[in-house]
């Protein structure tokens, strides 16, 4: 990369999220920003995110003749819930 070029990206997103609460430990969810996933509740404050699938699109221009306008991300990890 050149002196003033960077391949880093930081994304902020906001929007409504719909969560299906039930009596089991499994909590499926979906958000309007084209994504969703499943959490396994360990207790009321901690959950294990079994899967999260997110899609994003960017209108940024090409960098060194390479452009990646669409992105699909699959993640998993721990969830810490704060508040009610």
Low-confidence regions:
none
Number of helices: 0
Mean pLDDT value: 84
The dominant shape is elongated
Helicity, as a percent range = under 10%
Computed structural class = mainly beta
The sequence of SSEs as H and E is: EEEEE
Estimated share of beta-strand residues? over 45%
Separation, N- and C-terminal Cα atoms:
46 Å
Biggest beta-sheet profile: 5 strands, antiparallel
User: Reading side by side through the largest sheet, how are the strands ordered?
Assistant: 1-2-3-4-5
As a whole number of angstroms, the C-alpha radius of gyration is 17 Å
> How many DSSP E strands?
5
Structure commentary:
The chain is mainly beta and 84 residues long. It has a domain at 36-84. It is 0% helix and 46% strand. It is built from no helices and 5 strands. The protein has strands spanning 17-19, 26-31, 35-41, 46-57, 70-80. The chain has a 5-stranded antiparallel β-sheet, with no helix packed on it. A hairpin with a 6-residue loop joins strand 1 and strand 2 (26-31). It starts with 16 loop residues before the first strand and ends with a strand. The model has no long low-confidence stretch (mean pLDDT 84).
What is the fold's blueprint, element by element?
Blueprint: E1 17-19, E2 26-31, E3 35-41, E4 46-57, E5 70-80
């Amino acid at each position: 990369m050149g002196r003033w070029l960077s391949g880093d990206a930081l994304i902020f997103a906001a929007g409504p999220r719909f969560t299906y609460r039930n009596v089991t430990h499994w909590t499926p969810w979906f958000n309007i920003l084209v994504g969703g996933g499943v959490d396994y509740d360990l207790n009321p404050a901690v959950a294990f995110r079994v899967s999260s699938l997110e899609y994003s699109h960017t209108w940024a221009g090409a960098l060194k003749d390479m452009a990646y306008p669409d992105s699909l991300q699959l993640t998993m990890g721990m969830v810490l819930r704060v508040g009610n």
